[in-house]
Write a structure and sequence with these properties.
- The complex is a heterodimer.
- Chain A is α+β, with helices and mostly antiparallel strands.
- Chain A has 8 helices and 14 strands.
- Chain A has helices spanning 11-59, 74-78, 155-203, 221-269, 273-307, 316-333, 352-369, 424-434, and strands spanning 61-64, 67-70, 88-94, 97-101, 117-123, 126-139, 142-153, 312-315, 337-342, 347-350, 375-381, 387-391, 438-443, 449-454.
- In chain A, strands 4-3-7-6-5 form a 5-stranded antiparallel sheet, with helices on one face.
- By secondary structure, chain B is an alpha/beta fold.
- Chain B has 2 domains: 2-119, 3-Layer(aba) Sandwich (Rossmann fold); 127-220, Arc Repressor Mutant, subunit A, CATH 1.10.10.10.
- Chain B starts with a strand and ends with a strand.
- Classes of the chains: A alpha+beta, B alpha/beta.
- Chain A binds chain B through residues 246, 249-250, 252-262, 264-265, 267-268, 271, 273, 276, 280, 283-284, 286-287, 290, 293-294, 297-298, 301, 326, 328-330, 332-335, 353, 356-357, 372-373, 417-419, and chain B through 9, 11-12, 15-16, 18-19, 22, 53, 78, 80-86, 97, 100-107, 110-111, 113-114, 151-153, 170, 172-173, 176, 180-182, 184.
Chain lengths: 455, 222
């Protein structure tokens, strides 16, 4: 298993949190901006009405017989009516002399004919909006400055403002929820290509070292190109080691073959018994070393392939049939008969190279331990599960060792004098285990070993 | 039989050829692909033994070209690799069989015989001697019109005797030829096969003579 790399946070969470945090700040800003703006507009509205009302009072003023006459029109107050029954106060001053109204209302400085002065103040414990307007009255050789102060409590205004604030808050919440949804969606579309790349890396078979060809977002190009170059290097080095093994095998086996052929030819010409024995031992040693080398390589390959099974649907009869054809000449050398009885269409799912290797090892064993002119029977059946059963008429397994023989390099007591590495049954058992099946060893009632490889 | 051996290692080629000549076969040796192509176009071979790794190219290229031409001389590949996938690869390309180096000559011979039997069913060259007709590929022995199929060891024994009539073969030599080197067999095991062969040759002019302390000899009494 490969080690899990240390994890530092999650891109998805980081992105979502940043986006949601940003949305929250924006929402608060939005709320205050809306409220502020609404307050200004509402204040403006009240100011306009107050101004108009005060102007109406001023307009009704006139100088008659040297006296200032102010007849406050009804409309001046009715236009100030609000649903909240706000209180209205007024005061009229001529120059700096109080004429009428609430004396506590003092005119603000700075009001002129061109416009009034507005101010928020506290009057009799209440928050009021206050306007001071003035007008210069010109009568017969007289110039009088008339000031009108008008104040109104702000109940209606604050009620309106409350309502606007509520609406603004609702708007803010809506905006925020929408932003959260959008940031989750944006995050998954952004993370998507990354996830797809990770999936396609995971789904790859063990032999697949081809570069990734699907288009990726430009930010991922450096990652994917380094991944591709890594794959390329891996592929190249795998290829090199395969070539190396082939070359090494070639270099070792060719001289061995030379020695063996010469040894065989020499054996035909040598007559002295001790020389013959020496040459025969030489041949046996060569056979032993080459067989061990093959099986060690096979075993290594099987261990590798068993981790990443290349599963295909296999017709067991066909696969074993090929093997039997291939092994028949070997059987004939000992005058052995290889009988294959296969049910039609027994299929299983597995790695053909592994299964072929396992069955070949089992048949090899049977051939090795069979007495001449006997037969080796191979039966393929689908019930209870797909299996290959190989039985011979040899000495069988020592009963007390049946459980141990599949261990690596283990050989039966009665195997002495037969060339073998002790890996054949190990390979077959490894293959069975990798396919979720099992290898069963038993002895036939009439003598002989019986090995069943089931899937 | 006549073989073409394509093998770049001269030591190995010599070793194989000398071993095969002992059995009475004719072996031509080609050291590279060019020679191999030249030989195979001219010579009329029963079988080609082909090494895969050659100095001027891959033996599989030769296989492909060989299959593309009309020659259907069977090919047995000599491979140094033991990986199953590589073996299958050479079979797919049209090799009839393969042996892994180092190989047992008895196995090579058994494979040659099996390949030839699959291809034609019988030998092109039959041995006719002393009233028998012997087909070493099919394993058929015809004595005065009556045909029997020999078992493999009987066949190999007869082949050996026929390769050198009149020559004495010691029991030990016969053991080495009939049994594999890892079988522990006594010299007496040979007697069984000699006895069987004698029975098959009953009605012919051939006789296997026992020479006490020396071995056996095939005699042709006419």
């Amino acid at each position: 298993m490969t080690a899990r790399p240390p994890v530092s946070g999650s891109l998805r969470n980081r992105l979502v949190l940043t986006l949601i945090g940003g949305a929250a700040v924006l929402t608060v800003l939005l709320f205050f901006t809306v409220r502020n703006y609404a307050t200004q507009i509402a204040q403006q509205g009240q100011d306009n009405i107050l101004g108009a009302s005060a102007a109406a009072i001023l307009d009704s003023a006139s100088i008659r017989d040297g006296q200032i006459d102010v007849d406050i029109p009804y409309s001046a107050f009715s236009m100030l009516a609000t649903p909240s029954d706000d209180c209205v106060f007024y005061a009229i001053y001529q120059d700096d002399v109080f004429l009428s109204g609430y004396k506590a209302l003092v005119p603000e400085r700075g009001a002129s004919d061109r416009g009034g002065v507005y101010k928020t103040a506290t009057f009799e414990g209440m928050e009021v909006r206050l306007v001071t307007v003035s007008r210069t009255l010109i009568g017969a050789e007289q110039r009088r400055q008339l000031h009108v102060v008008l104040a109104q409590t702000q109940d209606a205004l604050s009620e309106t403002l409350d309502q606007i604030s509520r609406n603004a808050a609702l708007l803010g919440v809506g905006f925020f929820s929408l932003a959260v949804l959008l940031s989750v969606w944006a995050t998954s579309t952004t993370i998507g290509p990354l996830k797809r790349l990770a999936d396609s890396v995971t789904r790859r078979g063990p032999q697949d070292l081809s570069p990734f060809a699907k288009p990726v977002p430009s930010e991922m190009v450096p990652l994917v190109s380094s991944l591709n170059s890594l794959m390329g290097r891996l592929d190249q080095s795998l290829g090199q080691s395969e070539d190396f093994i082939a070359e090494a095998a070639h270099r070792v086996r060719t001289p061995l073959a030379t020695v063996r052929s010469y040894a065989e030819a020499t054996l035909q010409r040598v007559d002295r018994e001790e020389n013959r024995n020496a040459v025969r031992s030489m041949i046996r040693a060569i056979d032993e070393s080459s067989r061990a080398a093959s099986q060690l390589l096979d075993h290594a390959m099987i261990t590798f392939r068993a981790d990443h099974l290349d599963r295909q649907t296999i017709d067991l009869g066909e696969l074993v049939g090929e093997l039997v054809t291939r092994l028949t000449p070997l059987a004939e050398m000992k005058d052995l008969e290889l009988n294959l009885r296969a049910e039609k269409g027994v299929v299983c799912s597995g790695d053909p190279i592994l299964i072929q290797n396992a069955v070949r090892n089992l048949i090899d064993n049977a051939l090795k331990y069979s007495p001449s002119e006997s037969s080796v029977d191979i039966v393929i059946a689908a019930e209870p599960r797909p299996h290959v059963c190989i039985s011979d008429q040899g000495p069988g397994f020592p009963p007390d060792e049946v459980g141990k023989l599949a261990a690596r390099f283990a050989r039966g007591r009665n195997a002495e004098g037969t060339i073998g590495s002790g890996l054949g049954l190990t390979i077959a058992e490894d293959v069975a285990t990798a396919h979720g099946g099992e290898l069963t060893l038993s002895n036939l009632a009439g003598g002989g070993a019986c090995v069943t490889l089931s899937f | 039989m006549k073989f073409l051996l394509v093998e770049d290692n001269h030591d190995l080629a010599d070793a194989i050829s000398s071993r095969m000549r002992l059995d009475g076969h004719v072996v031509d040796h080609a050291g590279n692909l060019d020679e191999a192509t030249a030989f195979s176009e001219v010579g009329d071979y029963d079988l080609i033994l082909l090494d895969i790794m050659l100095p001027d190219g891959d033996g599989r290229t030769f296989l492909k070209e060989h299959r593309a031409s009309d020659l259907d001389t069977p090919v047995i590949v000599l491979t140094a690799r033991s990986q199953v996938s590589d073996r299958i690869g050479s079979l797919d390309l049209g090799a009839d069989d393969y042996v892994t180096k180092p190989f047992d000559h008895a196995e090579l011979e058994a494979r040659c015989r099996a390949v030839l039997r699959r291809k034609s069913g019988k030998s092109q060259t039959k041995v006719t001697l002393g009233g028998i007709v012997f087909d070493p590929v099919a394993g058929h022995l015809t004595v005065s019109g009556e045909m029997v199929t020999l078992r493999n060891r009987e066949l190999r024994l007869l082949e050996l005797f026929l390769s050198a009539p009149g020559q004495i073969f010691s029991k030990q030599k016969l053991v080495d030829r009939l049994f594999s080197y890892d079988d522990d067999v006594s010299e007496n095991a040979v007697e069984v096969y000699v006895a069987r062969l004698r029975k098959h040759l009953d009605n012919s002019d051939l006789e296997i003579t026992t020479l006490r302390g020396l071995g056996y000899r095939l005699d042709h009494d006419s």
